[in-house]
Description:
Layout: H1 4-18, E1 23-28, H2 41-45, E2 50-56, E3 59-64, E4 68-73, E5 79-82, E6 91-97, E7 102-106, E8 113-118, H3 126-129, H4 140-147, H5 154-159, H6 169-178, H7 192-211, E9 251-255, E10 258-262
Antiparallel strand pairs: 1-6, 2-3, 3-4, 4-8, 5-7, 6-7, 9-10
Helix pairs in contact: 1-7, 4-7, 6-7
Amino acid sequence: MPELPEVETTVRGLAKVLDGRRIERVEARRADLRRAFPKDLGQRLTGAKVIGLGRRAKYGLIHTDRDDTMIFHLGMSGSWRINRAEIEKHDHLLLETDEGTRLALNDPRRFGSVDLIPTSELDAWPAFAVLGPEPLELDAGDLRQRLAGRSAAIKLLLLDQTIVAGLGNIYVCEALYRSHIHPTRAGGSISLPRLDRLVVAIRQVIDEAIEAGGSTLRDFASPDGELGYFSKTFAVYDREGQPCGCGGKVRRIVQGGRSTFYCPACQR
């Protein structure tokens, strides 16, 4: 699944061809993805000028001069394609700008979504209203308050979008490894100094992954077709049985239905 760095990479790629451009044509090539496309999507976007792009958690945001924001989620397999030679079977939404650039939202498994809401109502949109702070805006004191009294495993709590918005499985595994925290440790039991190390590790992992263009897993590529290379630097993720730099071996367990990779020798 595309995670925060992949979505950020996508938004930055789209900004190069969309920011400041007018949308001349909108075509929904099916009625829905995970849920139905807004019925008035074409009417509200056609002729609108894009005045900025952004991201909230794992959602991409395209703002227009009509006080509308198109919110997209890439689901499990979604990606945007720019000026590809042919329209493909799974190109479910097409946008064309005033300078002739064609963008296609491709989603083979159709777990993604597209919504269109007034920009002024973004913070109150139900999916956003419950989100915690962004990982790059997190501080240890705030995280400690959010974890206070929680006996659930820190790995699962960091995946809870109401605690931290946008963290996904890959980057939580890597951040816990860098901060030497065992993924099953109770979140409320972790000291402030260790949480401070964790926050620093989260920021570093996210920053490095964005710089590397994300992690290429399964179908993800940025809008220009470039692959992400952060996966080349994984310390523990998807490395079960391989050696850790400390001399231990990476193990895999399942938490909340997801694989967790960690080193039992240096994560306590």
